[in-house]
Amino acid sequence: MVSQIVATISLVALVFVVPFIFAHQVGAQSQNVTPSMVINMSDLTIKVGNTTSNETITFSNNTSNTPGEIGNTTR
Description:
Elements: H1 2-30, E1 37-40, E2 45-48, E3 57-58
Antiparallel strand pairs: 1-2, 2-3
């Protein structure tokens, strides 16, 4: 009889403790997420995906383009 009560109390306590353990692990993992896009306005580069790599997409400024041309117009 006593062992049944102890088992029931242990089971109820376990039900309340387990969600807190998993919530702590999820919070710790989310701190390591890197952003998927970084826009650097000083040199007009955009890093997409893994922002620790050197893969960038570079845009030219539109000040040297003739009217009607959009973006980088190198031929």
